[in-house]
Amino acid sequence: MVHKSKQEVHFYMNKVYKFLLTQPLQFYKVGQFIAQPGWKHKDIIFDEGDYEIIIVVEGDIYIQVGSEQITLNKNDCLLIPPHVRHFGFKESTNGSIYYWMHFFPNGEVTSSYASTLDTNHYEVKIPFLFNIINFERIAILVRELLDSANEEQPVLLASNYYMSSILIEISNQYCKSVTNHSKNSMRFEMIKNWIRIHSHEKINVKKIAKEFHMTPVYLTKLFQENEQMTTVHFINLVKAKQAEELLLTTDLSIKEIAYELSFNNEKYFLRVFKQITFITPTHYRNSYAKTYLNNVEVDPTIPIPDNS
């Protein structure tokens, strides 16, 4: 949601930034922020040339960038460029959670307002504001970055590549959302999004087919043609991705997660999860034990990485 006066021209809202990735981006810092009662984003300008990406996990974040007042909701992704003043224009919802990450580009950065996307295989396109379509993929990449950056002896090169992978995934999702305009593609995307939205429920091929007024055979044909997998496998894939997010962002037990995702029993959940990820839920959770949480009282001073 964007607040504006009638005569105000929105300078950022439709802007797309293009980063060259002939070499990885330079990672700076990352964290997960949990808002406390009365919290507003601090008033700040990035004078060192770093960019920040904010991705909302839960709640609402109210932030003004330049003259743009923006309400960020769940799964919203905001790119804040350097040398631009930004601050919280309103107190955020208590308990709101967002990921934040800073990076420096390692090449030319251009921007445009064009609705069509030119082709450059070494360039990622990041919109100023974007609602992430497949949040689970982004969440996993961010957790990998958090884990890498908070190693006892972090390897900067690894963090650089994780940071670059996040931008590549955001760019891919954005470009896909721009180019998917055909009726069939849009309908199929609606089916996939419906499955993602209802992934916590008991869903099957027959129920989905009925929802979209088609036969189960035709639905499975669509998945074979567009995703090279069966409908059932896609359902399990989505549920496994949801399980990964719950394993990393909550303290729910394996049994509680199985119940949350409407599996018939814990044993069946374990079998499906291992088929998709090749490891057990417990092993997956323990693989990403390190992270960095901060709030207004815990906000570190992190040195700028050496460019040499």
TrEMBL record:
InterPro entries: AraC-bd, Homeodomain-like_sf, HTH-like, HTH_AraC, RmlC-like_jellyroll. Residues 189-287 form the HTH araC/xylS-type domain. One of its GO terms (molecular function) is DNA-binding transcription factor activity. It comes from the Bacteria. The keyword Cell cycle does not apply. Keywords: DNA-binding, Transcription, Transcription regulation. The keyword Transcription regulation applies. Pfam families: AraC_binding, HTH_18. This is Transcriptional regulator, AraC family.
